[in-house]
Amino acid sequence: MLPWVVNVVLICLYASLCLRCSVAAVNKPKNNSLPAVIAFGDSFADSGNNNFRVTLIKANFYPYGKDFMGGKPTGRFTNGKTLADTIAAKLGVMDYLPAYLDPSLQNEDMIRGVSFASGASGFDPLTGRLLNVYSIPDQIEMFKEYIVKLKGIVGEKEANDIIEKSLYLISWSSNDWGISYTALPIRAVQYDVPTHATFLVNKATEFIQVMSLLPRIIR
């Protein structure tokens, strides 16, 4: 059983899934307060992290951002808000979710949530490495840093409470199939389609399991 509460919204081309896992029963929290939204994944949730990476996969030029605040590109792979931005706003947490690597990120933003997502990433770490974007291991390392920084801002007790009660958005779409299986078919040499699908499901499961253990490990 997981030692802490995890809220996960999985957004992809195949399914939309909302999970709440706890050491007790699977149900809604007794109090409806949502302290923060934390996002991982690909371009559906990337708020501009790829701006700070040497990669061709960027969205920091027009017409990206033309309908966003100020009409300027921010690194979001959309003309306006990302799905993560929209969910955070609809839940009343914040108007938009900032990129974790944004140098202008404030402590107040850290408390309410950030995005670690990176456009062109996938559940398969190879997908991210091929285009030099932030892979699953990279995003997990950023989350580890975030936990430490959060404890420095609000203290360990409150930070643990925020981590436990936050909503976690995980968005990965077809990059694992389109990049590392088709365009640069390294995985196609190793796996047929059914086996590759199983491989990706296992990677997704591993990611969620690792995420659930991190707050207990990082003290």
Task: Describe this entry's structure for a reader.
The chain has about 220 residues and is an alpha/beta fold. Strands 2-1-4-3 form a 4-stranded mixed β-sheet. The protein starts with 5 loop residues before the first strand and ends with a helix. Residues about 1-30 have low confidence and may be disordered. The protein is globular, with a radius of gyration of 17 Å. It is built from 8 helices and 4 strands.
Task: Reconstruct the topology from this structure.
Elements lengths: L5 E6 L4 E6 L15 E5 L41 H8 L16 H6 L12 H6 L5 H19 L1 H10 L1 E5 L3 H9 L2 H5 L2 H25 L2
Parallel strand pairs: 1-4, 3-4
Antiparallel strand pairs: 1-2
Helix pairs in contact: 4-5, 4-8
Q: Which of globular, elongated, flat, extended, rod-shaped describes the shape? A: globular
Main sheet: strand order: 2-1-4-3
H/E element sequence: EEEHHHHHEHHH
Percentage of residues assigned to helices: 40-55%
What is the strand tally? Answer: 4
User: What is the number of helices?
Assistant: 8
Structural class of the secondary elements?
Answer: alpha/beta
Report the portion of residues in β strands. Answer: 5-15%
**For the report, how would you describe the main beta sheet?**
4 strands, mixed
Low-pLDDT runs: 1-31
How large, in whole angstroms, is the Cα Rg? 17 Å
Average pLDDT value? Answer: 86
End-to-end distance: 20 Å
